[in-house]
Here is the input.
Amino acid sequence: MKVLVVDDQEIDRIVLVRILQKLGYSADTATNGMEALAALKFKSYHLIFMDIHMPIMDGVIASQQIYSTIPSPPPIIAVTGDLDKRKRCLALGMTDFIEKPVAVQRIKQSIKSVVTNKDDPY
Here is the structure.
């Protein structure tokens, strides 16, 4: 499964990538929404973990652009410490919402919610 982690905070990217590695996944990273959109032009992903508050382009705007420009967009999981954004993210169409700091069990639950067949995820 190809995963993209989008977060402007280096430590948050490192933590999430390491959790994903522990769970058996590898991930590419981007530091803002613009980089995420650029990455999606060259590679398709099965899942995106998207921070909401980022400079240059935040996660909400990036997600809106992904949903409006990619014919079959991958599930996007919002990752943020701003709990007030939960309703907006889910209304936008994001698959799930994870609070920072992230926890291994919560990441596992979120991945499980988007993986339809655990033997052949995609």
User: Anything to note?
Assistant: The CA atoms of residues 33 and 57 lie 5 Å apart. Confidence is low (pLDDT under 50) at residues 117-122. DSSP finds five helices and five strands in the chain.
